[in-house]
Amino acid sequence: MSARSDSALPDGEAEGFTVPGPRSLVWCLLAVLIAGILAPWVAQQTDLSMMWPEAWHIPIQHWITDFFKWFGNDAGIGPLKVRDITRAISAMMEVPLEVVEGLLFRGLPDWGISPLPWVVVVVGTGLLGHWLGGIRLGLFCALSGLYIAVFGLWADAMRTLAIVLVSVPVAALSGLALGIWSTRSKRAAKGLGVVFDVMQATPHMAYLVPVVVLFGFGQVPAMLATVIFAMPPMARCVILGIATVPADIIEAGRMSGSTRRQLLWKVEIPAAHQTLMLGLNQVVMQTLAMAVIASLVGASGLGQKLLFSLQQLYIGKATEQGIAIVLIAVVLDRLTQAWAYRAPHYEPEDKPWWQRHRHLLVFAGVLVVSVVLARFLPALLTLPKELTISVGKEIDSAVRWFSKNAYDYIEPTRDWITIWLLLPLRNFYLALPWPVVFLALGYAGWRLAGVQTMLLILAMVATIALAGMWEPAMMTLYLVTAAAILCVLIGVPIGIWASRSERVARGVMAACDTMQTFPSFIYLIPVIMLLKVGDLSNIVAILAYAAVPAIRFTYLGLRRVPLVTNEAARATGCTPRQRLFKVELPIAMPEIMLGINQTIMMALAMTAITALIGSRDLGQEIYKALPGADTGRGLMAGLGIAFIGIIADRLIGAWAMKRKRELGMLD
Amino acid sequence: MTDASDDVKISCRNLWKVFGEDPHGFLARHNGTPDSAAFAADDHIGAVREVSFDVRAGEILIIMGLSGSGKSTLIRCITRLIEPTAGQVLFEGQDLLTASESQLIELRRHKMGMVFQNFGLLPHRTVMSNVAFPLEVQGIGKRERWERAQEMIRLVGLEGRERNFPRELSGGQQQRVGIARSLAVAPDIWFLDEPFSALDPLIRREMQDEFLRLQQMLSKTIVFITHDFDEAVRLGDRIGIMKDGLLVQLDTPEAMVRNPANDYVAEFTKNAPRERIISAGSIMTAAPAGAAAGQGVAADTRLGDIAHRVLTSDEPVPVLGEDGAVAGVVTRQALVDALYGAQPS
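The joint structure predicted for all components is written out below.
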């Protein structure tokens, strides 16, 4: 990331263009660099180890593990055990799940209901798409459904979908409730804000461990983890949505004599509709991502199938399953977005009711016809195996062929990068003396955001060290740094390119939107296919997942440079190159830094996923904690990742805010 | 023009709104009357400072000031959309500042209507449903409230737009919806907070006419906020000018133009259309003995309407009193002085 800010540094003639904030921070960074490089040599010479001493470890992990074991098994008030409560919750969640699963693919024999014919689901999704977003969305939805059916992934896809369909309302409603509570009580807002910060910085996987301890393996724990995971973004959107309802509208509501409750339900929430719907969109996407990852705790569905395929290196099958997951993700994303942006419009009263409800009528028709026909033609109910196809074998042989021919080139490249670029970086981080890290981060926090932030940062670093996670944390940092640098090197130029042409921008932004809807798991497939396992594979997978914000924020930052400023630069006689480096990039820098911030957050989340293909970082700690339900280990590792994220977020965020204020671009 | 004996609808008594860390403590520290120096020395802002005035039944009172002068805060204190720091607001004798939340809601439901600068329409509701909203929150049945809303929509000339959504309407049309909504409960007192400021000049003019037409029919008691002196002169019976939270002068447009309280007010009145503000009665001089009442003009005739006659005829134009007798005359000199100011020769 420093590469970019350096290149934006002009000769230092104008105070307004010096970018990286206090100059002392640059010295601070330099000091860290030198310390990291010299540390091994110093250690060798003086026999003075700069590692965090073993004796200073506190067994926090064990305490947490023991606590959860006790909590899950023995805790309770009198005869009422926590275990009973968790079982009751499980049972409660299981009912709706069974109903939805029954409707989608299993049938409800108790009530004599057969599952919906797959044709109905496919046509229904298509109709929904058409109703919400027009013919193109409708076709896309229907074709996606068709793909899933034809490739024989129907039951698994419906299993995953069922988790989503049941979790989304629960997560959305709880998020709504928490959000409303936050807008009503200042204290709640403050407390929940902190909790949400930590929750959103904690990777998906870390949620699974405690849930497994309390609820065991299977669909229900997956659903609970999903609900908890997907709640904060909804609550955030509720808070944001209600806070951004124009004052005029609220005052009009109050002057109309609304009571507080009327104001909330009749004015604030409907007026915030669009933001709330975007919150719902996020809930749906998070839910799907979690439903896929929850295969690690035994949730069956597409995610589990994909996990098996990856573990056995059935790349072809994994590709088919991955495409199905991607299609579901894109369909859900586009449907909820179309719903969010659907503006109410004038409906003449004289239209007959069948015209106003024609989507519903067509669906009812298809439903009745298919259900009746399915009695005679079971292929309508579930597509028989003979009619499904798979190109998995063909993909496998193609990959094999590709590997045989291309691997001679890929392997040396990979090894060269690993040995000459990655390993030095890794060794640098591992050798970094802990006092230097403490000092540097503390100093940066103090200079950028004040004493409070400094204390917060130091407490977080200390927690990581005390919990005995120094080394995995440094490994995580190494992976994230490498990936972030690559993201910047690739993302910022793409962002600049997009900002130069409307046409390119449209294409790039559409690609970014689509890439962001993919559950992170998916990115493992091509990486394994091309690079096998190793540090570079991890980094490339992280890069693929996390580059989007770097691109998007660069583009947005450049687009937000005022037109007048640009014209003034041109009128002054700047060459395009001068304009970019002396005018546009410095002004866009706060925005770009926020993008890099996002990139780092996503990269951190992704390290937890890439642990599946091997690493020694915090993600691996979570992964290892899963089978043994070692809550302390998993949770602390998850928190460790969250802490790294929060530290990066606070520092970069503080810098960007400061800079924006200086540039007068705060809106 | 109303006169002091008319009953007072709203009465503000020493109203204060102070923003800052500890507004009440700040007021207390300065014995309830901090001056500008006190505000400058402390980290508090006096948005409304010791404002007192009465609004009489049926009058249009304009509160005028530049942005940041406290006029919007003032109207929000009167309606208690924001809580005043100190003082009294009497509405038909009842102190609004001590009214409970539910009393306040009752008052707003039946006695008050308000129009907002940016319309404040509910984007998810149709025109009809927006206008019916105040009736809906009262719990009036759908049939009745839609009938009354329809009536209001007809009143503001938006028939045929009932089922449109706000974003499908132009700015002027949207404000008509806002006006219809504020009138739906047949309020006694009508608050308008810069209702036409967001509109284009031509539309603004049209809406001002519409406003005057409605007021002629409805005779509401009105508090009208604007930053536009021309608008204030055009619509108001009396104008109050605010600066830095203080009510600098409260007077009829004519009195204000003729006797601005200070330079600040004078700055506003300087470019005012004096020929449409100053009346013949206010500049007439004693009639020479034996002046004929024939072709005299009424005392409230604006100078613009008699200027041509005064300037072109040799005789001063007689002004008639209430009894029809000659009360005085307007001379050429008086007219020119009144319109262009007495200039040292």
